[in-house]
């Protein structure tokens, strides 16, 4: 994980929390990673207090496992939890895609296509972290285009838990991590709500096969200290 930009905000705890949320959703962390409060404080250029506060919030979000101040980890996801989150994502992201197709402008579609071009480059270069961040950006563009900020907030919590797992599976998934995004864009061009919803569902289910395989491979396996 690279250094974070030093923060100088009135509410450092919230700023640190938001930065760590972005890191989780964008794949800067992977399941099993151990978080050290003092190391994070050095990276952020803060005292340990705002780091600890942010860590406790993330534990409440179920994005990390806080066993003790010396044992803070990104959890390995169990199969049942993965399938539940996937089912929720199918409904909610399907709604986002369907609604986005009804209102998408040429400029917004161009932004999605730019994300896809950058994602192709990251995939070709084997850049797991950049590819994971671009994948998350693509998915979150849909509720943004749809004008659904409440839905974005709900998805954000789900992606706090899914981001590290998707990143861990990204290179193994290869082209399946991006190929299903193209039909989403084509459906948006046609203003085809049902087609856009089905395309993003295919992405979550079929494109997510490598993610499920990762879960199954680690389910029930203890993380070494």
Q: What are the SSEs and their pairings?
A:
Elements: H1 12-25, E1 34-35, H2 37-44, H3 48-60, E2 65-68, E3 71-73, H4 79-103, H5 106-124, H6 128-146, H7 149-173, H8 181-190, H9 193-205, H10 209-218
Antiparallel strand pairs: 1-3, 2-3
Helix pairs in contact: 1-3, 1-7, 2-3, 4-6, 4-7, 4-8, 4-9, 5-6, 5-8, 6-7, 7-10, 8-9
> What oligomerization state is this entry in?
single chain
What structural category characterises the helix and strand content? mainly alpha
The number of distinct helices, counting runs of at least 4 residues, comes to 10
Backbone CA Rg: 18 Å
- Uncertain ranges: 221-225
Describe the largest sheet: 3 strands, antiparallel
Task: Describe the protein in words.
With 225 residues, the chain is mostly helical. 69% of the residues lie in helices and 4% in strands. The chain is built from 10 helices and 3 strands, in the order αβααββααααααα. The chain has helices spanning 12-25, 37-44, 48-60, 79-103, 106-124, 128-146, 149-173, 181-190, 193-205, 209-218; strands at 34-35, 65-68, 71-73. A 3-stranded antiparallel sheet has the order 1-3-2. β2 and β3 form a beta hairpin. α1 (12-25) packs across α7 (149-173). The longest helix is centred in the middle third of the chain and has 25 residues, at 79-103. The protein is globular. It starts with 11 loop residues before the first helix and ends in a 7-residue tail after the last helix.
């Amino acid at each position: 994980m690279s250094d974070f930009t030093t923060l100088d905000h009135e509410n450092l705890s919230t700023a640190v929390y938001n930065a760590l949320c972005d890191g989780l959703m964008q794949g800067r962390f992977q399941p099993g990673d151990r978080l050290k409060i003092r190391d994070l404080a050095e990276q952020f250029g803060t005292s340990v207090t705002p780091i600890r506060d942010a860590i406790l919030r993330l534990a409440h979000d179920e994005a990390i496992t806080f066993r003790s101040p010396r044992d803070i980890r990104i959890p390995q996801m169990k199969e049942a939890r993965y399938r539940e989150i996937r089912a929720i994502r199918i409904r909610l992201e399907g709604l986002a895609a369907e609604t986005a197709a009804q209102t998408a402008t040429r400029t917004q579609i161009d932004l999605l296509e730019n994300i896809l071009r950058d994602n192709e480059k990251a995939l070709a270069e084997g850049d797991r972290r950049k590819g994971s961040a671009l994948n998350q950006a693509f998915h979150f563009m849909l509720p943004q285009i749809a004008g659904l900020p409440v839905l974005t907030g709900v998805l954000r919590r789900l992606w706090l838990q899914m981001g590290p797992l998707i990143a861990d599976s990204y290179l193994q998934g290869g082209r399946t991590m991006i190929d299903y995004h193209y039909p989403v864009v084509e459906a948006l061009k046609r203003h085809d709500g049902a087609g856009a919803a089905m395309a993003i569902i295919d992405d979550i289910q079929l494109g997510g096969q490598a993610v499920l395989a990762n879960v199954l491979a680690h389910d029930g396996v203890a993380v070494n200290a």
